[in-house]
Structure formats: structure tokens, C-alpha cells
């Protein structure tokens, strides 16, 4: 075959000039592994203890190990962990799809609990983990200070011409301060529940309450985490007073409201645009394309304005499933429902695969140069703090929530509290991304504490994903489903909603009826006090039917079709 | 609002540490522009002269101009043109979708014509453009040599210790050689029809013959282009003989067959996997995900093996629409059909937007430092060569094809030849990407010829896209549709296929009938001579029904549903 003799050289020349071979290899490996994950995950579907995320994680670990062996122990990095890849391309579709497919009624019914857990809970957990870490630092002098801090402080002094003054005293104070900042950063990183992990482990159909509370908490505490993370980086912890606390609260409220408003605005804009222009007339693809692009746009604009992209895209998903989705043709409905789910599914699997492969990265283990014992000790302490930090807010807050709520069915029993506590323990890719961001970009290459913290983070993530991930489903089965009493669930809610509507009508609650306008208002107020959630829901539905749906479309204002992205239960109530 | 005083600083700190702001800005701008393109394209739908690609191109030009003005004439680059982005992420979904939605019967009916145009045509065009460019170089000494070539040759000499020998003579020969290589590169870049442009301008429903020939040519000549491009870079043009030509032909056949085989293999693998494992049992998303990933995998593996990724992914799309698509659940069928089309649509729009914005990049215009006149002159010469090069193979090859074909309906009339010639003139993003690859990565920053060629390429692309793109549809209407005689189209083909089947059955063509095995074979051979296309089609369908579909699934071997990705016309024949 003399003809082909010169082929290899020529072709490799061509490829190397055209595309970066390492990129092609990396993509090929990842796509192959993704296919393998899907097939294995499908085969293990019947197995209660395994799920797609654990499969992906383990497959990532194994293939990372194989690459390590093949490359002769040099490096297992095929793709370097990239925060940009994660936050710009992988996270938005996952969160958007969660908002798009969430059971809206269940979510908003538990909204007060979600906010309580997402805001107050995260702050409590943050404080506890930070304090715990400070305590550990004080006892173990090994970990007391990032080594470069004294040097930096010294330089600062020199510039200020204060070298002759009591440097030692100042350094001590400075080190103390850095210690606090450092511990607070760890607190901020580890206090947030990973919403991606939650999605994989909890099932919206089986345990709607648990899903909406734990996942909702994960979404809301993204805003909390941003505020805390920023506070850690810019605040002076030596003089925290009431004013600073109020300032932080104001910042949080600002972030939360603007992010939510942005998401809702973009969602409504897409609904209005698609309803007015009626793209489906010519092409289904345009409708689907504009929905995808608008959803992504909401996230990017939020990031551009330094808001919480996760909150924005989540609420954009909710609004799109409530209005936009009903304005498109039927094939677009099927396509969007499944393609959003598919993209999210691929992104989730990719993330776990990625975390698994990253864990076997030999470079960072070498860099940390700590013994296996130290790594394990630090990881154990971190995980213990996560356990305690979560326990410290779930139980008290659940009981506070129980005191406020009157109806028995709304109360969070102890067994539910246990599952909420346990299901939110998982730490995943978000934690790793934040940890890389905080501990590797600091430019302190000589430091051994930073790499140690990254490796410890990886150990915590691996452990919590594998252990919590596989134990959660059996735990839920044992605690929630088998012992489940016939509590007041969705079924009775519909009934009581109908009752409420009758009640309103009996009291002349129709706003059209002129004249006795005081009576319904006061009766409405009384009802609001007695059944707050239901009254808000009823008022919202009236507002929605009268003002929103005529403008933005939605069910009832376009030809009705069976099946909705949020499932049958939602059909009657959203 | 003292509370918010410190917000901006804190937030920008956070964002800058977390995500690269310029990336976020670039993505936001592009996504917004994509949305604008879709809306404007929708509003201009009724307009015959405009289409989505021209809208995107003009919008890209305008927004590039705005950025240029805003940045004070410094730079309009928001995203630098990136070959990797183009070849790895944008091109594969477009070509895959084209294969997935192509009318298979029409495509394979014209397969001989497509191969003729794609292989021989591209070679003729390549030779003509190269020769034309050499002629231009010889007359215009300005453009004779890339300035750095003599210096390079001198260095080579020095290293070889040959400085005392007749350098001037050698340099003359070397320059002559470089000139040829240089011209040949231009030939290779400009001889390929842009399949992405073709997709935008031609309509598969209205002009199936034209679409399949021109688009098919674009797909096949990707393999031809790779071979030519490699040949240009590695061959010695001073002694081209018959053996070299045979070698090139062998290389092409190797590339063509292996690429096609790889695509078919991956497609069949996906069909077999999905049929055997039956993913739909648990989740629609897994089916859709595995189809997307396998399709992408076929392209990446082809690139990894230095084959023609475009050919591979195109045939993978054909096989997937023939087998895999019929093995999945109905909602997966709707989802894949529309989501592949949507992704392809977004990628196409993105490419044209990108080309438009790239054209206003002030840096490369400054770099080329040639007067507007020179740029225009070079572009005109290039475009004229493209015109002549295409004319030189379309008319002769069409007539050769006419001589071979006997039936009147299969013949390519003059008006069809004109539209084939015209519709294939467009040069688009592929040309730009190849041009960047060839003329900017050569490391000759001091050269003015290379930037001049890049800017000329951009002018040619803009001109051909806008002019050819807007004139093609009206031209087709004028030439093809209005004067259309009732030719033998798909309708009569179905009839004659049924006749053929009857003919086979009368002759005892059923292979099951033992005994008289010689008779049907000889009659089959006679039929093959008389109606080659139909006989091949008939034999293929028998083979397909007997061996392929039972293993890999396909229509008839899974519950039949109305609607297929290739449309109604295909239902009876594919």
C-alpha cells in the first residue's frame, strides 16, 4: 500500500494546524464517558443505592486513574477544572430546567419555609462553620496562618514607614484578622447546599415537600452566599455592629429582589414576544430557539449586573413554564420540555464526571504535600462542621416554622426534619468551584495550606456525594414513605381551595360587585389571617386570570392541550 | 441610601474574581443579537430577497460598527474569530442536522452527479483558480512573493552551509515554488462551495434536485478539500506526475470511504444500542441525550483520526434518521427532530453574525495597509476566478452526466445548470476560517500580503453572501419554477418503483424461491442496466428489510407513527 505511506504525516500536519489536538482528544474522551455514564446509569436504574451522579463520579475517578497510569503518573488532567466552563455553560441550563419543571404550587406553598432556610439557615451555618474553623486554627498552630500573610503585612508596614513601631503587636492583630477572613471564606463556601446534587438525589414526584424545601433552599442561598462571600472579602470583621448587619441584610434584599425581578421580566418579555409575533406560524425552530436564548440571556444579564444569576434564571424558568410555554405550538411544547431536560441532564452528568476526574489530578495532591492523615483530618473536621452547621439551623428553624403555622398538615414533623437535614448535606461542584476560586487564584504558590484546603474540599465532596447520595433514597424510603401517615397533601389542598373560592363568592368577594367593597376586603383580610397560603394563592390566580394571562398568554388563553411541563398535578392550580 | 453605597465596588470585585467580565459581555451581546436576528428574520419572512443569513450578516456588520464607534475606533472585536469554535462547536450540528433532515431518496438518486461535481468539479475549480492566481502574480510583481520567504530561504541556506553557492538562482526557484504553493492554497480555499450558505438559500421542499446536488456537492468536496489542502502543504509541485495524481486519488478514496464508514458505523451503533437497551422505558431524556452525544462523537472521532468530520457526521445523520429515530419513543422523535433543527438554526445564525462582526474588525484592515483600490481589485479577481472556476466544471460535467443518463427526466437542462452554477457561488464562514488558518497563523507579522488576502477573502464572502444570497431565490423562481415543464419528478418515481417491484416479482425476483436462482439474477442485471438507480434502490430496500431493520430497527419494526424527520414524501420510499 505504497499509496498510503505518506498519509499519517500529512494528516497529522493538517489536523494540528487546524484544530488543537488536545482539545479534540479531551472532547472525545468526555463525550465517550458521558455515553458510558448514560448506559450504565440506565442499567443500574433499578438499583436504589446507585444513581447517575454516583456512576458519573466513579467513572470519572476510574478514567482519571487510567489516564494517570497511561501518562506514567504525570498528570490526569484532560480538562483543567474551569470555573468559567462551570458557571457560564453548565450551571445555567440545570437551574433553568429546575425552574421550568418545578411544581409551582408546591414551591410557593413552602416559600416562607424556603426563605427561612435559605437566608437565616445559611447565615447560621456560615457563622458556625467559620467559628468552628477559627477554633481549630487556634488549637492547631500548623494551620494558623496562610504563610505569606506576615510577609505581606510587613511590606504594607514598610510602605507606610511604620517599621520602627511595634510590628509584632500589629502582626498579631493582622494575623488574627486574616485568620477570621480565612475561616469565614471556608464558612461561606461550605454553608451552601448544592442544588445540583439535590436535583439528582431527590425525586419531585415521590417527595414533593422535601424536594421543594431542600432544592428551593439551594436556589435562594445562592444569593445569600454571594452576599456573605462579598462581605468576607470586603468587610472589617474587627468592628461588626448592628449597622453592618443591617447593611448586609439590605444588600441581600436588594440582590434577591432585583434578581427575581430580572428573571420575571425576561420571562414575561419572552411570553409577550412569542404571543405577539406568533413565530409558530412559520417555524417551530424559531420558537424553541428564542426560548432557549432568552433563558440564557437572563442568566448572563444577571451576571453582568452582578446579581444572582441562579435566582434570575430559576424565576425565568418558572415564568416561562407558566406563560411562554403555553403560547407556542404543540411540537414546540414537547421539544422544549424534553430538550431542556436533556441539556440539563447532560450538564449534570458532565459535572459529576468532571469532579471525579479532577479528584485524581496528581498535581494538586503533590502540591498540597500534606500527609494523607492531615488531609483526612482536615476533611473530617470540615465535614463534621457541615453536619453540625446544618443541624444547628434545620431543627430550630423547623420548630419556629411549626409555631407560626397553625394547620397540622403544614407542620414539619421530626422525621421530615431529619430528611431535610440529611438531604441537604451533599456538597458538590459548586463547592469545588468556589474553593478553586478562593484558594488557587490567590497567587500564593509557595503556600501549602491552600492546596491542602482544595484537596480537603475534594475529599469532602467525594465523600458527601457518594455516601449521602447513596444513603438518601433508602433513608427517605425508610423514614418518609413507609411510616407515612395520611397527611394533608395536595389532594385536600385542592378541595380546600375550592372551599375558599366558594367562601369568597359567598362573601361577595367578586371585585366586580360594586357597592359593598368594604365587606369583601375585611372578609378577605380575615381569610388571609386564617389561611394565608391559600388566600395568597386565590388572590394571585384572580390577578393572573384578569391581568396577566390576557397580556402574556398562558393556559386558557391559547388552545388547551393535555400535558404540561410541570405535570398533571399542576394542571388545575398553577 | 447609605446602605447601598458600597455595593458597586463589592460586586464588581466579586464578578471579576469569579468570571471573566469580557466573556460575559461578549456572550450577552451575541445572545441579544441572536434574538434580534430571529425576530427580524421572522418579520422579513415574507420578503423574497431577504433571508436569515443576510439579516444576521448585516446585523453583525452594524453592531460591529457600533462597537467600533463606542470603543473610539480602537477595536470592534468582541469575540476574536476562532477556528476551534467554528469547527468544533458550530459546524458539526449544522451538518448533522442536514444529514438528519435530508430527503434520502432524492439524495441517493443524484448520488453519481453529486460525486462527479464534488470530486472532479472541485479539482477543476481548484486548478483553474490556482492557475489564474499564478497568472495574476506573474503580471503584478507587487503580489509576487510573501516578503518573508527569501529571508527564510536564506536562513535555510545558512544552516546548510551553502551560502557561497549561487543563492540568487536558488532563491528564484524557491520563490517560484512558494508562489505556486501560495496560489494553490488560494485555489484550495476558494474552490469549495460553502454548505452552510447553501442550506440557508436553497429550499429542500421547493427545489429538491437543486438542493441535493448543490448541498451534496458541498458535503462531498469537504473530503476533496482536505486532500487538496494537504497536498498543497506537502507536495512538491515542480515534479507532478501520473503517480502523484494516482496517489492523491487513492488518498481521496481512502478518506471518503473511511469517513463514510465511520459515520454509518456510529449511526448503526446508536440504533442498535437504543433498540437493545430501550432507554425510553425509563426516560425520554436519555434517548435524546445519547443520540446527540453519539452524533457529536462521530464528528470528534473523525477529526481525531484526521478523516473528514463533515462527511462522517453527515452520514451519521442519515443513518440515525433511517434507523435510530424509529427506535425511540414518540416524544423523543418530536424532540430530536425539532431540537436538532433548532441547534443547527442557532449555529447558522451565529456564524453569519460572527462573520459580519469580524468584517468590521479594524485591526486587520489597518494591518493589511493596502489601499481600498488594491483590496477591491484583489477581491474582484478572486471572485471572477470563482465564477469562472465554477462555470468551467458545472457545464461540462452536467453535459457528461446527461450523456450517461438515458431517461429524459434525469437530464440536467441548461436552466438547471445555470442555477447549479449560481447557487454554488456563495462563499461563507468555511472560506473565512480556512483563510485565517492559512494566512494568519504563518507567523509573518511583517507581511502585508497575508492580511490583504484575509481582507479580500472577507470582501468576497460579504459580496457573495449578500448578492448571491438575495438573488438566488428570485433567480430560481424565474428560471426553474415559472418555466417548469411537467418533468418526471418524485411522483412518477414512486409509480415506476412500484412497476419495478412488479417486474421483479413477475420474474420471480424473490430470493426465497429456491431453484431458479439464475433467472432472477440475470433479469436483475438487465434491469440494473436499464434503470440503474431504481434497481439499486429496490435491491437496497430488500437488503434493508431483510437484514438491517430486524437488527437495527427502523420503520416497520417499531410502532409506526405519522410524521418522520424527513417529511411526508419520504414516508413511502426511504
TrEMBL record, chains A, B:
The chain crosses the membrane at residues 20-44, 56-73, 85-102, 114-136, 252-274, 294-319, 340-357, 377-398, 419-437, 449-472. It holds the Pfam family Na_H_Exchanger. Keywords: Ion transport, Membrane, Potassium, Potassium transport, Sodium, Sodium transport, Transmembrane, Transmembrane helix, Transport. The lineage of its organism: Eukaryota, Viridiplantae, Streptophyta, Embryophyta, Tracheophyta. It comes from Escallonia rubra. Residues 45-477 form the Cation/H+ exchanger transmembrane domain. It catalyses: Na(+)(in) + H(+)(out) = Na(+)(out) + H(+)(in); K(+)(in) + H(+)(out) = K(+)(out) + H(+)(in). It is a multi-pass membrane protein. One of its GO terms (biological process) is regulation of intracellular pH. This is Cation/H+ exchanger transmembrane domain-containing protein. It comes from the Eukaryota. GO terms for molecular function: potassium:proton antiporter activity; sodium:proton antiporter activity. One of its GO terms (cellular component) is plasma membrane. It is found in: Membrane.
